[in-house]
Amino acid sequence: MVRKSLLFWIESILLVSRQGKTRLAKWYLNASLKEKTRLIRDITSLVLSRPHKQCNFIEFKEKKIIYKRYASLYFIACISKDENELITLEAIHLFVEVLDRYFGNVCELDIIFNFHKAYYILDELFIGGYQQESSKKEILRICTQQEDYMDESKEEGFARPRTGPR
After folding, report:
1. Taking the domain 9-159, which CATH number applies?
2. Domain boundaries in the chain?
């Protein structure tokens, strides 16, 4: 049985460059495109304008913004006021560690050119905003296995002649 205290829900995860460009955005709440765009703009301006030495937790409307800067990227999670900030910060760090191992010292360009892989890793960590996996080894194993499947299907797709109606 899973204890309720171990469950936490993330409303959204953003990866934003120091220049304010969104590199990855994953939403687990139902919101319109206009509302998401406004939230990204507001959250990004809040995070980027904060002094470097200040706390990584910001109360924002009915939410909490949890962020951490790694190299040139800000990893930002939006949670409800009732959720635990430290668990969320640890989940962000886990995501960064998995990205770092997967890409070998991840950088902003890895996220830009391999965004689909970053989303896949994120999807292995969170389902519906809830953290599902906490083992770095297991996440990396699944992601590597998926990449192998994709490579095999690409090779087979080019080698096989098309059959069926045209």
Report:
1. 3.30.450.60
2. 9-159
